[in-house]
Structures are given as C-alpha cells and as structure tokens.
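User: Can you fold this complex?
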Amino acid sequence: MKFTLKLWRQKGRTEPGAFETRVVEGVSEDMSFLEMLDKMNNEIEAAKDGVEPFAFDSDCREGICGTCSMVIGGRPHGPGELSTTCQIYMREFKDGETITVEPFRAAAFPVLRDSVVDRSAFDRIIGAGGYVSTNTGGAPDANALPISKADAELAMDAAQCIGCGACVAVCKNASAMLFTSAKVSHLVSLPQGKVERTPRVLAMVKQMDQEGFGNCTNEGECEAVCPKGISISHIARMNREYVRAKLFGA
Amino acid sequence: MTTLDAKIPSGPMAQKWSNHRFNLKLVNPANKRKYDIIVVGTGLAGAGAAASLGELGYNVLSLCFQDSARRAHSIAAQGGINAAKNYQNDGDSVHRLFYDTVKGGDYRAREANVHRLAEISVNIIDQCVSQGVPFAREYGGLLSNRSFGGAQVSRTFYARGQTGQQLLLGAYQALMRQVKAGSVKLKTRCEMLDVVIIDGHAKGIITRDLVTGTIERYSADAVCLATGGYANAFFLSTNAMGCNVSATHRAYKRGAFFANPCYTQIHPTCIPVSGEHQSKLTLMSESLRNDGRVWVPKKKGDTRAASLIPDAEREYFLEERYPAFGNLVPRDVASRAAKTVCDDGRGVGPGGYGVYLDFRDVIKRDGREKVAAKYGNLFDIYHEITAESAYEVPMRIYPAPHYTMGGLWVDYNLMSTIPGLFVLGEANFSDHGANRLGASALMQGLADGFFVIPYTIGGYLAEQKPRQYDTQHAAFDDAEREVTAKLDRLLAVKGDKPVDEFHKRLGRLMWDHCGMARNEAGLKGLLQEIPKLRDQFWQQVNVKGSKGSLNQNLERAGRVADFLEFGELMALDALERRESCGGHFREEFQAEDGEAKRDDENFCHVSAWQYQGDTTKPELHKEPLTFEEVKLTQRSYK
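Assistant: Here's the predicted assembly.
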C-alpha cells in the first residue's frame, strides 16, 4: 500500500508550525499506524540530509498507557472505535489515501514538537484532589468494608480513563470535563472516596478552569472518541457533585 | 571473588522481617526533611516509594522519562496481584505463597526476601483498597479472587483485565498528592543518564531533560532506581517502546553488581509475530489458559484450517504432557513446550511459529455470552490486531519476552553494592529466582515501594550526615562530561542506517541464542557477534538533529547503545550457568523427558557480575543460596 501523509511539523513550543507532505510506500495492511510511521522515520533516519524524524509520543502500544496522541484524518486517535492511535491498523485505510496527522490541539496542551504535546495540566488536576488522602500503612482489612458490586463496577467504568486527552482534543471548547469527571465519579462511587467528596470536586474543577480548559456544552464528542468509552453521564454526575458541594458544603 | 553479604537477619524465617524492622535505625521525624532522596521511575515500585517517602517527611525528587508519572509500564499488567489473604478459605497462607514463589522460581530466589514479600502481600491489598482501587467484588460486597498461572489456590485480586492500570493509578494519585503537598518534586520527560558516586556512595544523578535537551545535576543522600526490566534487549517483547536498561546498566558501569542477567521470562500467550515491520508484541492475558485449550496438529506441515482438523488429529500437548496442571503449567514450562512442537514443524500460522489456543469447547459448554463476559475485551484486542475472531477460529499464540527476573544485585535492605544506591521492583533481582509466577510482579513492585524501602532506607540515612555534598562536587563534573561526550559521539557518527536496524539485529541474535533455549555453541557465537554489531552501530548509525532539543532519535540511540553492551552480559551469564533452571534453559542440561535439569550442587547461587572496563571480562561473584524452610526438589507439574 502507498499513502500520502500530511504531517504537522513544528520545531518547538514557540515556533510556527506547518504541514509537510511525505509519501510512504511499501506499507503492509498488517502494520499498525505507528509502525507505518516507524517505517517512515527509519527512512528519514537513513537519509543523509537535514530532515529530522517526525516526533510522536507512544509507549505501550497496546492501548492502556495513554501516551499516543495524534489527530488522524481529523479525528483524535483516528478512525477506530474504542481505540487509541497505537491500535489503528493500516487495513482501515484505503490504498493511495491522503492522511493528515496533527497533534492534540488545545490551549492547555501546548505543542512541544510535531505531534508531541504537553499534557501536564492533567497531572495538576489529579494533584488538586484526585486521590484518597490515605498514607501508606494503617489501612484496615480490605474486606472490612463491603462495597456493592454495582458501586465497584461503576467506579471501575470511570477509573478506566487512560488520561490520553482525546476528549479535550475533539471538543470545540477544549473541555477537560470528561477526564476530570471520570476521576470525581470513580472516587465518589466508593466509601473510601466519599469522605473528601466536597473539597475534591471543588479543587479539581478550580484547577481545570485555571489550566485554561473550556466547559462542557453537551456535544458528546468526547464520549464518541474516548478509547475507553467513558460515558458523559460522569460529567452530569460531577456537575451534581459540584452543585451539592457549593450548596451544602462539607 | 568476594562472597556477597545479603545481610539476611537472623532468627526464624517468619520473624526475620519484624525483628529487622525493630533493629533498623530510625531517622528522627524532625530530621527527615533534611534528607534528599531521588527516586528514578514512577511505576508501582517508584511511585509507591516516592509517595510513601514523601508522606514520611523526606524531601523527594521523583523522575520519569514518560510525559506523566501515570504512564509507567506497570500500567499494562493485565491479570492481577497475588496476596495471601485466604479470603476464599481454600488453604492459602503466607507460608504457602512463600513456598509457591520459591518453588515457582525454581529454587533460585533468596528465601528471606520471598518470605517478607508473602508477609507484606496482605498489607498491599488493604492499602490499595483504601486508596480507592476498584478491585472486582462479589455480590455480597467482598473482594473477588481467581486462580492464576501455576497456583492451586485462588489468591489473585484483579480489576477486570486492567489490574496494573488500577494499581498504578492508585500509586500515581498518592504520588500526586505528595507533589501537591510539596514533599515530592516531580520531573517528567527526564531521563537518568548516570549515577554520581562520591567517596563510594551514590550521591546524585545526571539527567537529560527530554524537551529542552538540558543536562542536569541532582544531588541527594540516597538514590533509588525503580527503572524496570530489560526485556527490550530482544527488540520484540511485550514491554513498552521506552522500556530500557540504561539506568541499571550505567549504575552497573559505576560499580553496582548485576545479578542473574540471564534470567528472562518468556510469556507463553502472546500474539505471534506477523512480519518484519512489527514494533512490539502483545500479550494475551494468561487467564485465557483457564478455559482455552492449547494444541497443534499431530501431522507436520498440516495446513488445513483448524476447524477441519478432527480431535483425533490434534495434539493437546500441555494436557497430555502435564495431566495434573494441564494448560495451567507455569510460564516457562508452557513456553518451552510450544517451542518444542514448533521446532518439530507442527506450528501453525504464517512462518510456522504459533500454536492454537482454542475456545471451541468452553463456548460449547458455557455459551458464547458467558465467554464474552469473561474474555470479551481480550477477544476484541485479538481481533483488532489479527482481524480474526477467536469465537470462530482458535487464537494463535506464541511465547514472547515479557519480564526479566535478573537485575541489579541488592541485599535484604534493597541496597546495591554501591552504598546509598537502592534498587526496587523489576530493576532488582531479588524475589523471583529463575522464573516469576503470574500476578507476582505487581505484588513485588508495591511491596518494595510501599512497605520495604520506607523502613530500610532509614537504616542507611540514619548513619549519613544530610546534604554533605552539592552538585558542584568534582564527581558531578566528571559524570556530566562523560554523559555529554557520549551524546556527542552518537551525533557524530553520521552513518546511513537507522537506530532500529541495529536494535532489530541485536534482538534477533538474542532471541535465537539467548531466548527460550540456549546452548554453549550458540552463546559463544553470540559473544562474538554482539561486539561486531556494536562496532557497526558506532560506525554506521545516523542520529539526526541536535542534543539541545526534543530528539527521540537521540533518545533511542542512547538506549540501543546500552543494550548493545548489556546483551553481552546476558549471554555471558547464560554461558556460565551450566544448568537449566526456570526461564534459563540450557539444552545440554535437560532430563530425559526434556524438562529443565538443575544442578544444585554447583549452581545454587546468585551470579553477580562486577564491571571491569569495556574490554575486560566482568568479574563473577557468587552469593550462595541456602534454604532453611523449603526443601529443594525437582519441580514437577505432571
């Protein structure tokens, strides 16, 4: 197979960026999208010229670490359902197709180079309250507090978030509500997390706003591109938590 | 040769750890903030350690090469975490978990460490639940368990097929809480390139900021490496792309002994290689072996579709060879059996290196729906990669490098042979012997990070004056100069070959001669080939760009350069260990039935290698393994 790639090239955070066109030939349909980029980069590395390989993030290549982050053909993580960039295979594209490859774009995700962006804002949102304040040691027996299967399953549905940022990249408001609400919802579903529900939701939402993420206007695109299928019902739940915290406090 | 002192506490096995904790010196709470500790890596061991040390009041610097601490490769562990809770009333106990781990490791682990691990396992589950880890539960609200690879009791706790993810996020959240509190400073996209040794003690590190390219110096009173394993020496493995040996290898070159580098685990259930382009291998959870049946055609070169091969012409080789454990034999045993039938020309799929993992019978018995509820996500992953439905046709699987039991040598306190340099998790060698049991890696990572290092590091620091040296010390100058020179050298080669080409060639050599089966001639050949390949790398590689910016080409080149040195150490260790044990299978040393044949008389020891310079053979030191509690027997799963 043969593809024409339109790659977003940007040398650094403050440098201007532009699309560069490259043709990649000899692609097999069993290659993953990232293996196709590896092949292209290997060709760039072997050429004795000043062109540098295309920078992109990837690590586990099995859809769980949340590192890979590209907008492929206008869609975060490309054409697959419930998959990350690393889980896209070339058999999903038509031979001869032109494919655009861009970074996850948002004011709160500055571009570091080519498709590599800085998502540390997510870490700061978690740091603001996305945890249970329990020090190591001194925890009671794990079975001391029964938790209904339904609550545990609901917590797990939300906790599956891989923190990739596709929800932000696809949203016209660059909102991080799906990401933030997934953690709020995970923790408030469990008795261990309920204790700090009020300060948590207030601090996390505040941090989210400070980072420059927008708000949710119920478009639902985030859920559609989320590789883990995190439901926007968690956003509704976070909004309820937030209102509850504001109205009733602790 | 020196005899290594593991500092194993005296007294009965079950009391060693509690006695030791009492005997360890303590650092006064008010003094803890005067001590700086560096923790490299943010997986279960690293994030657990950094968070716990921060909570205690130490001044911690935590580093990772990923863009977020949440992305360390612990996140990819699927199956579960073992703990001797005996919630199922099926006869489990600390002693049984201890015994199973020593036996599973083919009697090449240190008893006292393993016992401590089994004791701590129960605290880990309590801790994780209190952090909000959503483990699977029964309808009554209590925790659910399953049995896992090679265990006859149900002691594995799990969170769907994403246990590693949930445990890591728990540790990551604890870490971010300390970052917010100011006790831990976190630096992401930052790679450790050297350890700085002053007066024989580890007192800092040199790093490269992967965004700006800046070389940075950090001083500390102690350094903890939690930098994972080296399975990417094989190029193709289930490890993440970024997993590398550089931190531990460079510590080795600074004088830390490297123990048992030849002990590598080849996981039996991975999706087979589909072509040259492949960048990594994907694991299919071992839990599939609970219901899937492993078979190959009896006839060589049988190219009929699986469904057209009647039962009488199939060989269910694990069930036939190991009737007691069947498809649930430990990983090393299952992997070797698959290799044997494929080498015999009976493998399936393109290239002939694959065996079937068939769900036909369980689907017939329980129905497709029940099977989907249990394994649906794994069947989806398989479909995504191969475009085949495991509901319709059997999966094809083949073993792949997955985990490395070897690592930097540590004593009972997790301290390496360099005072002040501690090594945690997969990066050390201590608990799994020659083969790790399923669901034990998560247990060890968290044990080291949450419950061992917070105690043992105090014993070391209590005898150190805090902040004796700063980054102006000449040792920092020297280390930084060497690091910079190496980067310059990589950039100066300006050949015409990509980095990956050398990594793939190394991986192929390692897999062929130091993989699932090894022999003297192959290993000797490998020791000739690796230096040649390394020379070619340094003459022909082309690293583009500069060192002063985000340069993934340069990052990979540095890591591959280290693998090209480290591969030799793996081969050397495999050659010297003239026995078969666990994941180390020497073809010359096998029983008549093809099973691994240990040599307890001559090899019941840990092999720890001391660097002697680039052109001199490293010196071998031995730590004899003595067994007080467990009787050494031939492992049998028949």
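The beta strands of chain A are 3-10, 17-24, 70-72, 75-76, 98-103, 111-113, 116-117. Chain A touches chain B through 82 residues (CB under 8 Å).
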